[in-house]
Task: structure prediction
Amino acid sequence: MSRRNKVLRNLLILAVLIPLAVSRSGLYLSPLLAHRSSERSIHYGPSMVVHVRDFDQGKYFLCKYDKWISCDTIRRTLFFFWRFGDQVTGVENDPDKPVCWTWSSRDTHCKAYGILNDGQVKKIELTLDDDTVLTQSDFYDDMFLLTWTDEMQKGKRNPHVRQVKSIKGYDSEGLVVYEDQ
Result:
């Protein structure tokens, strides 16, 4: 076999093996592919992506599926690959609550997200236990996403410095129509 034929054969073998290895490694070429794969891996979805927000380590996918809401974290790794993170399934929406929400954290990144079940709610206000206030009044298909970064404390059961203290929903006149602590 000539040198040229050996090179072509080896390139063909690499062209087959590299995509196979990447697909088995949990690495994806786009954040949306990583998100879809994370749902398939637990037999969930496909959900409707309502909003995508960038953060310094990747993207948050705010989604709806059937009775569920979720905020899937997709992280950038190895320069241009993507890997799925946490919160694929999220929480079941309770339509009896004016605001159905949850919050979570990983490393120094924290997020609170939810859905508005009461049309009167026009603004969401989240207060952290250091009295930092985060607000949102522009919603994504009746969903909201509030994010913040935090410091980690070593040796603590819950290592985050700032926890969620309360959440309030305001109507168009500024009156509180929902409050949870």
